[in-house]
Design goal:
Strand content: 35-45%
Number of strands: 12
Number of helices: 5
Structural class: alpha+beta
Radius of gyration: 20 Å
Order of helices and strands: HEEEEEEEEEEEHHHHE
Largest sheet: 9 strands, mixed
Helix content: 10-25%
Distance between the termini: 47 Å
Length: 198
């Protein structure tokens, strides 16, 4: 009997240790969440999650979020340029003195039987005090202004993160020579966190 209890405890411990996703709210509470049942809902500004060992779904609003590590992605609440209201962004890459952060939010509108979607993008290079060094805001439209802004994404990333091989590799995977500069947006949709500090 002792052997069965030991095996069960060993299994539970290994499942708990293998768990990598967690959420930290602004009160400092750390919640371990199931990777397979956690979803970032950008349009609603919240994260839907299920705690490890539980089956019911809960939510944390971005207003209450400090930090979240979900799978290979990291989200954090930032007060860019020391604004009162914080915003949540994915951290694409991080160096000793800079972070590359951003978000891609798709908005779908419906009118009768017709629906259309538009994705809005924000990309920032910030320092450790959350001051904006450089920023780009655009959407996926065909407008000349947005096409030109998309053309600035790769040069901006290279300017500040050329010494980070993993970011450069990700950038190379998403660089293209399409007429509307749409291929580069794949960089923003791939929210994997890259640590360049090592």
């Amino acid at each position: 009997m002792k052997r069965i209890v030991f095996i069960v405890l060993l299994f539970i411990s290994s499942v708990s240790l293998a768990q990598t996703s967690y959420i930290i709210d602004k009160k400092g509470t750390k919640l371990y969440v199931r990777d397979d049942a956690t979803e970032v809902i950008l349009i609603d500004k919240r994260i839907s999650y299920v705690l490890v060992g539980k089956t019911w779904e809960k939510y944390v609003k971005f207003d209450d979020l400090d930090y979240a590590a979900i799978g290979s992605s990291v989200l954090k609440s930032f007060n860019l340029n020391h604004k009162k209201k914080s915003q949540v962004y994915f951290i694409y890459g991080q160096k000793e003195d800079k972070q590359l952060i951003g978000v891609a939010v798709t908005v779908t509108s419906t009118s009768g039987n017709m629906s259309s979607s538009r994705t809005f993008y924000e990309l920032y290079v910030i320092d450790n005090d959350q001051n904006i060094i450089e920023e780009l805001k655009m959407d996926d439209s065909k407008s000349k202004d947005d096409v030109e802004k998309r053309a600035k994404i790769a040069p901006m990333i290279k300017k500040y993160f050329s010494d980070c091989p993993d970011i450069m590799s990700k950038l190379q995977d998403n660089e293209g020579s399409d007429e509307r500069n749409m291929t580069i947006l794949g960089f923003l949709h791939n929210t994997k966190y890259i640590n360049c500090k090592q």
